[in-house]
Structures are given as C-alpha cells and as structure tokens.
C-alpha cells in the first residue's frame, strides 16, 4: 500500500505509490521529524525490496530543516541501493526560480548519491497565473485550471485523460 499525505504549513505533500511514483512537495519544518519522516523511510526500505520497473522520485521543496534533510538522505540511500541492484531510478529535483538554497540541497544530494539527478527550475509566476483549458476525454466536460494544477496532473500520470484545448487562457 502506498502513502498519501496532504500538505500542511509544516509538512510536505507526499505521494508514494507502489507503481513507482514517489513525490514530496512543500516545506518540512515539523518539530517531530521522526514521526513524520521515519514511516516514509521505512516505506522506501520495504518498497526497494520489490520495486516497480521504473521508480521516479520527484522533489519540489520550498524549505526543509536539517533534520528533514537527514531523512531525505536516508531515503535516497535506500533508492541508491535499489539502482545499484539494477533497478531504474530517476530523480527529478524541482526548485523555484532563484531559490539557490533548495538548488544547492539537491546538488549536495546529487553529489552523495550515485543516481543522477535531473534539475528543473520552476517559474513560479507562470504556475500561479497561467491558465489551461482542458477537456476530459471521459466526460467531455471542459474546465479552466491553473498551470500549477495541470502540472500536478501531468506529474501524477493522468494527462492522457485530458485534451489540452488552450495553454494560455486569459482570465
């Protein structure tokens, strides 16, 4: 069974799926890092025993404290072992434009782990303001959503359920 945790002001959104998608997005400044992160590390430790054919790990952090970073590093060590044993593991490290501290955290992890990281700078203004008009292939309903929401749909592998009608909708 996977793990799904909603984002809070102190804890990130987490979506760990047995089909190989592991996402962490938001800030991690919880006072009780053990209670939040240890179950995630334990899940990854079990997951790598029988992983999906491809494991894609996506980080999009706003801020993390040093205690959280320790657990992230521990998770990555388990995934590194999985990759060394022949599993395909991809890591995407997303960071807000001009956020040098999160970029540097990703670069530090990249230097410590033998799994290559793909770095993606995210233009926050575009995510906040650009709208996308989509049509559901299943229902035929149309909707105008933010690019940030569309980006989450794509990252979660559901973009094939929609047709993009217009990528730059004016409100």
Structure, described:
The protein has helices at residues 33-47, 66-84, 100-112, 124-129, 147-155; strands at residues 3-5, 13-16, 21-28, 54-64, 88-96, 117-122, 131-136, 142-146, 162-169. By secondary structure, the chain is of the alpha/beta class. The protein has 2 domains: 3-122, 2-Layer Sandwich (Transcription Regulator spoIIAA); 125-171, no CATH class. Strands 1-2-3-4-5-6 form a 6-stranded mixed sheet. The model has no long low-confidence stretch (mean pLDDT 90).
SSE inventory with pairings:
Elements lengths: L2 E3 L7 E4 L4 E8 L4 H15 L6 E11 L1 H19 L3 E9 L3 H13 L4 E6 L1 H6 L1 E6 L5 E5 H9 L6 E8 L2
Parallel strand pairs: 3-4, 4-5, 5-6
Antiparallel strand pairs: 1-2, 2-3, 7-8, 7-9
* Assigned CATH superfamily of the largest domain: STAS domain
Oligomer: single chain
* SSE run: EEEHEHEHEHEEHE
What is the molecular shape? globular
Beta percentage is 35-45%
What would the CATH topology of the largest domain be?
A: Transcription Regulator spoIIAA
CATH class of the largest domain: Alpha Beta
Helix content: 25-40%
Count of beta strands? 9
The overall pLDDT, averaged over residues, is: 90
Question: What is the rounded Rg?
Answer: 17 Å
Report low-confidence residues grouped into runs of 5 or more: none
- CATH architecture assignment of the largest domain: 2-Layer Sandwich
Lateral strand order in the biggest sheet: 1-2-3-4-5-6
**Main sheet summary:** 6 strands, mixed
Integer count of domains: 2
How far the N terminus sits from the C terminus, by CA atoms, comes to 40 Å
Number of DSSP helical runs:
5
Structural class: alpha/beta
